[in-house]
Amino acid sequence: MAGNSFGKLFTLTTYGESHGSALGGVIDGCPAGIDVDIESIQQELDRRRPGQSSIVTQRKEPDTVKFHSGIFEGKTTGTSIGFVIENTNQKSHDYSHIKDSYRPSHADYTYDKKYGIRDYRGGGRSSARETACRVVAGALAKQMLKDIKISAYVSGVGTMKLNKPYTELDLTQIESNIVRCPDQTMAKDMEAYIKEVRSKGDTVGGIVSCVIKNVPIGLGEPVFDKLHAELGKAMLSINAVKGFEYGSGFEGSTMYGSDHNDAFNNDGTTKTNFSGGIQGGISNGMDIYFNVAFKPVATLIQKYETIDKEGNTVEMQGKGRHDPCVVPRAVPIVEAMAALVLADYYLLNKLSKI
Amino acid sequence: MAGNSFGKLFTLTTYGESHGSALGGVIDGCPAGIDVDIESIQQELDRRRPGQSSIVTQRKEPDTVKFHSGIFEGKTTGTSIGFVIENTNQKSHDYSHIKDSYRPSHADYTYDKKYGIRDYRGGGRSSARETACRVVAGALAKQMLKDIKISAYVSGVGTMKLNKPYTELDLTQIESNIVRCPDQTMAKDMEAYIKEVRSKGDTVGGIVSCVIKNVPIGLGEPVFDKLHAELGKAMLSINAVKGFEYGSGFEGSTMYGSDHNDAFNNDGTTKTNFSGGIQGGISNGMDIYFNVAFKPVATLIQKYETIDKEGNTVEMQGKGRHDPCVVPRAVPIVEAMAALVLADYYLLNKLSKI
Amino acid sequence: MAGNSFGKLFTLTTYGESHGSALGGVIDGCPAGIDVDIESIQQELDRRRPGQSSIVTQRKEPDTVKFHSGIFEGKTTGTSIGFVIENTNQKSHDYSHIKDSYRPSHADYTYDKKYGIRDYRGGGRSSARETACRVVAGALAKQMLKDIKISAYVSGVGTMKLNKPYTELDLTQIESNIVRCPDQTMAKDMEAYIKEVRSKGDTVGGIVSCVIKNVPIGLGEPVFDKLHAELGKAMLSINAVKGFEYGSGFEGSTMYGSDHNDAFNNDGTTKTNFSGGIQGGISNGMDIYFNVAFKPVATLIQKYETIDKEGNTVEMQGKGRHDPCVVPRAVPIVEAMAALVLADYYLLNKLSKI
Amino acid sequence: MAGNSFGKLFTLTTYGESHGSALGGVIDGCPAGIDVDIESIQQELDRRRPGQSSIVTQRKEPDTVKFHSGIFEGKTTGTSIGFVIENTNQKSHDYSHIKDSYRPSHADYTYDKKYGIRDYRGGGRSSARETACRVVAGALAKQMLKDIKISAYVSGVGTMKLNKPYTELDLTQIESNIVRCPDQTMAKDMEAYIKEVRSKGDTVGGIVSCVIKNVPIGLGEPVFDKLHAELGKAMLSINAVKGFEYGSGFEGSTMYGSDHNDAFNNDGTTKTNFSGGIQGGISNGMDIYFNVAFKPVATLIQKYETIDKEGNTVEMQGKGRHDPCVVPRAVPIVEAMAALVLADYYLLNKLSKI
Asked: Where does the chain bind NADP(+) (chains A, B, C, D) (predicted)?
């Protein structure tokens, strides 16, 4: 099956290129009877929107979602939910400079080799613009999940790291600054850092962390579809992601079992949570938490050499309005993908017992 | 769809509990006409087998695979391939001590809550014994992939890390020691370390790294089924895995774009390979490499307190023949899962162009 | 997985209610490099369009398809193809008469019971208006299939049957009359019959037959996904279909093996074709042919009694602009579904051998 | 995805060739907590077994099923259920006569062309022997479905037809004769007819009808996965099936809407049931009933001419122990496939509403 669908039961299929007439998608498998708040879906889209602050791309794009089906009198009906986001910023750019050349660390070369053709306008399908559709579906999934609270935030920009466990952070403060880092002092530093990087025409990577609270026990489908395996895939499917770890993560690989095991309290909760809320691939009711590593954006506002289709060396000049650091805008995308996984596994878990 | 299948086109479905009568599986979607070397499949199983060396579990289990279908006169026929691994070591143990109790950081609690019932003998379905079936299928996938060379090795045991890029290692030396670390000095140290940990009844985590060479350009299915996203899921679905990173990984998130971008050579290869052989979710022909973090095994040969089904505190004593460190035996499992992903994506890529 | 997708590799996902703002869909898995003729896709839609002739519903709806993605410079790019058909005829009707009542032999009752809510405007999702999206995708599939020629036609209206094998018909004459029956005399009689039925406010069923020529040998995926099994499902998924038979069909069940077996010619073709071009679930290169039975449309322009949500008897009056007989407009839908199956199986068959 | 799996949530994957060492399968997605009666599963297998009566093949094969996993202390555990049926009757036959030749109306030719190789022993994978695995899984599905009662029976052998609606038959009498026709007089005639056909070395087709009672309202997944569409596919996937019709079926296509519509009673049941218990693709609680047409078995005990791989004419002689008419043994297979569909849709329907 082709790769533009995500989820087994709560399924999102997306389409759309960066500079096509519209992006859109279909959400299938959403149960009937969910109260839909369209406005809060649009708000999630606004959190991802270009031009929202001084540290993200200044491209103007309202990203307004329109639903065509599956919602009636304010509720989901159980039928497939189609939605469209028009591209209003389709200027007739001159793309001749990238049409026949491959930008380094972009998908130009691989798309061309794989498909024999590529929509070269703004990265085409490989553009992160596609994630707008994920945010729409994730926002709907959140409305289904109700009590489950998903909070992503920026915990690293370049070498600047928020070295505190999430339990010591005030997660209500994430949206109080444009970096989306819940530590205000760190946020200020990160903001200054990002601006400095941009002023050089450079970019920098970062880390998004995510915490999920109030997860019901039982989500996860052994043996291949363990909850963390699907979360990992979901995160790794986001543009620019290079790594995923949950619970004790890579650090956990350095520990002894006698330190790492999570002893039980008598109510079934655990005294520690190195497991990250998942044991044997199934949620145990404790908080789920994980980290997602993003590489630096490949588009630099600098002059550089690369090759064209024939393998000739050509000189190019990065231009346009690009993100110097992707993590502030990645926060709602990470949340959306987490919501899609949880919605899917919430439904799957309804089938565990007769 | 239930979680015991992996792959879209080259599909593995597995079954079997740790102490049931047999494990087995079905490989579906394997093209016809592949020459099958049963002996080399058995050799892969032997690399994973308990009792193979002094630093792994001493449990005796021959793990002999028997194929029932889909192979005729030495070739695959295009029909589904069923195989069985009998459990010969099914002693009538006394399981009363774990029947009603939940071992910490195992899947006892979550299976019981999810399904309302669990096969408590040796961990049941949550046992890593299940991965034997993955090794069988992965070994067949390797035979289909022919020129593609997958090499996994141990690069970390506890805090002991092999701090060399794979390009400085002699990957032909992986099997020359029982740790499966290609650096002989480090291997010796790791071996001693694992034995020390075991002598205390403790366990320790580790890292398996993997390098894939000779990958054709074009493997990967945007946007959700990016090649590294599926590799990540595959690895995270292995028991005890806590993290996955590819290419520059978590370290890449600290870098500047100007350092991280992989400049092209005129033949389409790149001068550096921070991308890890994958751009936009599609292989670019460079080496793929990634790291997989394993937590320490949860079963300690120590006395500890935990709870029973009613939430009462009970004392337990870990016993039996367990791995003090899982990574040496995880090496063939990581390779097998990588092979399954590549086989699947190799077939998917046949459909990219008309 | 939810039920709004069709196909494994060449996949169509649709959305849209009869009286919503738009219908649409996503075609995923279409290989790159196919020359797309948008105009001929629109022509297929026009063959299905309401108001096209005097024997179909007189509802006015232009049914113009707009593509948003996946096609670039006249070719498919290998990315997902999103399309939308706006509903221009969304009058603010008064639906109070059907809002709380269940029309007999419609899906009003079952949708309400299954989902607890239904979009009652014009049948909502259960309306055959949804099949417009199938025609779009099927038309694209036809362009991929090139030499394969799919010809559906009306072979029965009520008790009026075209008792000739397809080999005695001139299939180029199907579109030469509004019934879409290749026998001109029969077509005239059927047309008169349909008009007579409509004049009484009644409806009548019918049969659509289909012939597929130039099918490559090898399409079909044993054992569950036999080619005719998927064709059968495809046809039975069309609104109002009650039966499917291929090759010798129900008549074949009365025959002796000695009469039914298709003897080979020396070139691998067969002297007879009771098999209907499929043996063991796999195409053998002979013509595929099958019949599809449609029930009479449930909406009558008559007065009748039925029940409301509370089970009270209520009187209703059928009105509006409905098809007296669905088969003339079903012809392009049958072809579209056949094209979708063949496109999917054409791609699947690329994977049969290494 | 390859074609050896059936079902989305309650999934069966099968393997095995006619003359391989064993057949088997995996049932995945079966909920935990179902009481499993192994003996009654074996009884269903016995209903399908060769050699069970004087009118079926006299091949000796005990067809004993062994379960390897997923059942513990008499209950399903929610993990995948592996089972194996050993082939005990694998004589070292001489297959040289069919190795290089194509038998008419078998799958010899199409398998060879599709896969480039075929297991020619006894038809290999194309043999109806594979359906034994379906019966195992179907029998388990029946145990999950509890109150739902599925009754298949023979309603036609050649031109001999049981022209009574099921409502006039005593379905408890199906197993009282070896034909499995609930009308005892007709059963006797059919038995004599089958024996006569066999005595000539010929075969004959037939019809299996099926009635499903106590179906919950709401089973069915519009728009592509309508309940009858999946039932149709299930039946058409059985060896030798040429047609499927449900409710009014092909006859319904000749009717007027005013006769065909099923008027409601005040309790939501309908006065007539031309709909066959399904409206808009969703069960309405009325009886589901359908007919399945089987062609005559292709293997005749006669001398005939055919071609070899090089297209040369060769003379062959049918021999062995084959069914003269497949329908008596097809009855449990039809029931099994119906049970698999219902089990799957029963689980899917749990997800319709939040």
From this structure: 48
